[in-house]
Amino acid sequence: MPRVEAAEWVGEPPVRDTDAVAALIPMVRRIVAARVADVTAAEDLVQETLARVLAASGRVEPGMLEPYAIATARNVVATAWREEDRQRRNQHRVVDLTAPDLPEGGLLAEEERSAVAAALARLSERDRQALLAHEVSGRDTRSLASELGSTAGAVAAQLHRARARLRVEYLLARDRTEPPTERCRPVLFALSSGDRRRQREVDAGRHLLECDVCAALSQPLLERAPQRDDEVRIPIGGDADVVAARQAARELAGRLGCFSPTDLTLLATAVSEVTRNIVKFAGSGEVVVEVLDEPRRGVQVTARDAGPGIPDVERALQDGYSTYAGLGLGLPGARRLMDEFAIASEVGRGTTVTMTRWCGNR
Amino acid sequence: MTGPRLVSILRQGSYLIASIHTALDDTQMTAFQHDLVERIGRDRARGVVIDVAALDVLDSFASWTLRTIGEVARLRGAVTVVVGIQPEVAFAMVTLGMDTGSVHTALDLEEGLEFLDRVVGPRRPAAAARGGSA
């Protein structure tokens, strides 16, 4: 008999424990719910509490299971609060800086890829090979040079040109535009490569005034060029820009340190005159002031517009020839104020005035 | 107009003292011209001093405007004197080929007022009032 009793007793406890723990569920729920508002979080904590109580039920004295469950529930909740608090304090450290994927993201990425692919396809075979070998396969310029029977410098220059061309073709492919004129690609390429001599040769500034497509496309190309402190470009669109242009010219020239206050005033006055001409006759244009080092140190001012042009440049350069109230001294006056003065004008296309003042004159 | 004033026109007896405080663009210059001519009539001014010491540049338009003010003021019975033209500005004006026409000039405000006292001549009642209020 005792053996049977013993056997019965041995088989009983697990059953009794589970039942006892199950009986605690409503109470544990109440305890946790009183402390944790979020229903799902509360249910998680209830389950964790029950799991712990169940695991410990063999060790807990009979009758003490309920207080044990209460204490466990409190501890579990307190631990959860601490954890939550710690996470909140450290949240800034784990903040996810990558923007979430937008629904259109995939589509845009696909367009980007196809634009890059289209741009690559428009490069010459040689440029494409060099670019892919260097950028994708990671070959350095020296190993490419030995393969091509060239020098590392020449390969680097070729890569530079290829990248410049790729940028232009990428922009064209992305916007799905075909440049409207023959001159567009050379101009955009000169801007993309940042080659100032080339930009002058193709008269990039003038082309941008005349061609809206290139003016829009050139923005990202110009923005990536490093900020130059020896050149200022002032878009001209109204009266206030006349003052802005002459002040910018004075400021840039003043930094050279080789001009007297009188020189600076003469320069500012000349800039004021040619800029006013843009406003009066063309409405808009641009003034570029740049430092020259060759053949001597000086300041060059280029004033461009895409206005009606001057039919008779010779006459416009004579004193007193004027079509507005300014006594006709604008151009001839500016010519006297500067050391060098050149004017190119074409009726229907616009006018470019280029004038220079050298350091240490007079 | 917001921000600091670009110009000020003050009355001093029968004179107006107009000061340009900063570089003006053409529109502002023209507005200044209109304001000043209007004030000449309203204040019955007999002399006008325009102080341009703050101007960095007197280009053809600015010079032409000053000249116009002078002519219009003369027709309205007032004498105009421009004061404070900086030496380098004067040099640029000469090189440019500008002059201020029939507008008188003086070195500074003090000389300008002295000049007006001389040419506007014997004080009329309005001028006497200036002496009284000073």
Provide a descriptive summary of the structure in words:
The complex is a heterodimer of chains A (362) and B (134). By secondary structure, chain A is α+β, with helices and mostly antiparallel strands. Chain A has 3 domains: 2-89, Rna Polymerase Sigma Factor, Chain: A, CATH 1.10.1740; 111-223, Arc Repressor Mutant, subunit A; 230-358, Histidine kinase-like ATPase, C-terminal domain (Heat Shock Protein 90), CATH 3.30.565. Chain A is 63% helix and 10% strand. Chain A contains 15 helices and 5 strands. Chain A has helices at residues 2-35, 39-56, 65-90, 105-122, 125-136, 141-148, 152-175, 184-193, 196-201, 204-210, 212-224, 239-256, 261-282, 313-316, 330-337; strands at 231-236, 285-292, 298-305, 340-346, 350-358. A 5-stranded antiparallel sheet of chain A has the order 1-2-3-5-4, sandwiched between helices. In chain A, a hairpin with a 5-residue loop joins strand 2 and strand 3. The longest helix of chain A has 34 residues, at 2-35. Chain B is α/β, with parallel strands linked by helices and 134 residues long. Chain B has one domain: Transcription Regulator spoIIAA (2-Layer Sandwich), CATH 3.30.750.24. Helix content of chain B is 48%, strand content 19%. Chain B has 5 helices and 5 strands, in the order ββαβαβαβαα. Chain B has helices spanning 26-42, 60-75, 87-96, 109-120, 125-133, and strands spanning 7-12, 15-20, 47-51, 79-83, 104-106. Chain B has a 5-stranded mixed sheet with strand order 1-2-3-4-5, with helices on both faces. In chain B, helix 1 (26-42) packs parallel to helix 2. The longest helix of chain B is centred in the first third of the chain and has 17 residues, at 26-42. The radius of gyration of chain B is 14 Å and the shape is globular. Mean pLDDT of chain B is 86; it is low at 126-134. Classes of the chains: A alpha+beta (362), B alpha/beta (134). The A-B interface holds A 239-240, 242-243, 246-247, 250, 260-262, 264-266, 268-269, 272-273, 276, 279, 319, 325-327, 329-330, 332-334, 336-337 and B 23-28, 56-61, 63-64, 86-89, 91-93, 95-98.
